[in-house]
Amino acid sequence: MDTPYKQTTVGILGAGQLARMMALSGYPLGLNFLFYDPEPTACAGQVGDLMTADYDNQIALDEFCRKVDVVTLDFENVPVDTLRFVQKRKPVFPDPDVLEIAQDRLLEKNFISEIGIPVAEYFSVDSHSELMFAAKRCDYDAFLKTRRLGYDGKGQYRIKQQADVNQLDEADFKQPMVIERAVDFEREVSVIIVRNTNGESATWPLCENKHKNGILTTTIAPAKTLDNDEVAFDYAQRIADALNYVGVLVVEFFQTKDGFLVNEIAPRVHNSGHWTIEGAYTSQFENHLRAGLGLNFGPTGSPGVAAMINWIGAFPQDVNSITDKDLYWHIYGKAPREGRKIGHCTLLAESPQQLHSRILSLVKQLGVSL
Known about the structure:
Largest sheet: 9 strands, antiparallel
CATH class of the largest domain: Alpha Beta
Strand content: 25-35%
Radius of gyration: 21 Å
CATH architecture of the largest domain: 2-Layer Sandwich
Distance between the termini: 39 Å
Number of domains: 3
CATH topology of the largest domain: D-amino Acid Aminotransferase, Chain A, domain 1
Shape: globular
Number of helices: 11
CATH superfamily of the largest domain: ATP-grasp fold, B domain
Order of helices and strands: EHEEHEHHHEHEEHEEEEEHEEHHEEEH
């Protein structure tokens, strides 16, 4: 494989666990990293240099740009104005125009619909009267979501009956919202695609995802093969091409009896791709860097099957007492907090049956439920 010059420094806006894992995958390539985050205790600072400043601090951003050669990000809510400021000074991937779409649920759904890819029925909602109309159109079976800044179940309100709508009033509409009809789905899956500046792309095996309270708890890869899986890959490719995307993009789907509906896109490395660190020949983190630096992709195949299990809020006791050559722990160095992703583990196996057995054994040993 080709190797970049050792002097190359990658700047990462945001210094959470995704930045941390990106750097750990990039050091073997001879890359250097500089993180930028408003939080001085951001966990990526444990594995590299961290600049601490607000995202609107142009003096600090200018200094950051002088120290790096190329810039990427570890979460999609970095302000678009920050990215545009940085882009005038250094190459940025993905492009700020992509973030402008992905940061707004309404713009995202409009974009996906406009390129002919199906999504659940949705309505823009800016007032209680608009909500009453839209909720009725959705047969009072829907999710009301903030258009911006919602993730991991945040900024969401479940509507199951007309009474749920009546509990809200105009005071609850302090920001624009969108309502989505609830989807009767068979499973949730995601496609991880990486694309470079030449329009070349590669994908990892389809992932099946389980959530609890809106937070991803478990990913299985490859997902069980069904007859129309190729449609999901085609949709992901069309989205990446339409965005002229560079880097790793994840497209989350509801798989229904009638086909695939896009739930949302993530313009970054993603939780459902963490299994690729040990479970694929090349991780999502390494290939994200390769895409932005103009390097050849590493192979994205998988030699077996893998499960990624998130640890949310706190770790089970005595995690280090469990030793297994096919079990890998990733502890992010973040303080425990309810609803917070503080680490994950990956289990590898040769077959889906063996993987299922391994998962049951692990949760039994740890005394947890998934």
